[in-house]
Amino acid sequence: MSQSTRILLQTTIPTTEDDWSIWRFSMLKDYLASLTDEAENPLFEVTARDRQTNDEGDDPLLSTLDQSDFEQLWLFALDVGEGLTEKDRAGINAFRQRGGGILATRDHQDMGCSMCGLIDIGDVHYFNSKNPDPDQSRCDRDDPYTTYISWPNYHSGANGDYQKIMPVAPIHELLQDIEFFPAHPHEGGIGVNVNNPNARVIALGKSLVTGRDFNLIVAIEHYKDSQDQMLGRVLAHSSFHHFVDYNWDTDKGCPTFVDEAPGNGMKQERRALEDIKTYVRNAALWLAH
Fold this sequence. Notes:
Blueprint: E1 5-11, H1 26-34, E2 44-49, E3 72-76, H2 86-97, E4 101-105, H3 121-124, E5 125-126, E6 162-164, E7 166-167, E8 180-182, E9 189-190, E10 199-206, E11 213-220, E12 223-224, E13 230-231, E14 234-237, H4 245-248, H5 265-268, H6 270-287
Parallel strand pairs: 1-2, 1-3, 3-4, 4-14
Antiparallel strand pairs: 5-9, 6-8, 7-10, 10-11, 11-14, 12-13
């Protein structure tokens, strides 16, 4: 029997009923856990948890993640600055330095900015008050409707609708035959430093308001650091809404602070849900190698 890859789905916020806590990622968890190989052995063993803290204020798992038997971290950074401590970031960095794969995502404005300090990941995510987009023309509001949310906030569509992605040539293996992703009214900003040869933007989205293209996914390949350690692969996404239940099926509900009207595109276009599930499978397999 083949051994399953152990995946940790992790938020940076404590469990809260009226928030985007990890239980709102149940469809992602169940789908990953359902995948099998040709012999019907499970491909992935999935653990899902919200942030917890010990007496020192650190998350006892994240701060020692390199000592765990997890092989992948899917990090949903939902905080606005205090979601990861210095020790948490050190544990995650050490995890990647031993070869662990990471999918790291956030959302608009400063959501997820506690990821600043994570190797590579903190550089490819652009925030409002930390590590802003070096292209100053992008440091302004894109979504004009939700006025209490500032840039970056690219409007790819309503929650519950889908967006047509634009793969960047050469088309990455993760995106073969994938056309649609869940949409969101205010996606965050990501990008790549031209001096980083290991990272590239692999997919773009388009704002339905301004018509501007924006970076949807950044992929970072294995590489050896200055200590000759082979770092694990990374995927950075502009929004956690690509993966949360509400954007796959609005019937799953959302926190009460979400006040934008939902769409029904994901329900009308069956291919859209199939595409994001195919991408999830591809991502989990890619990060495992």
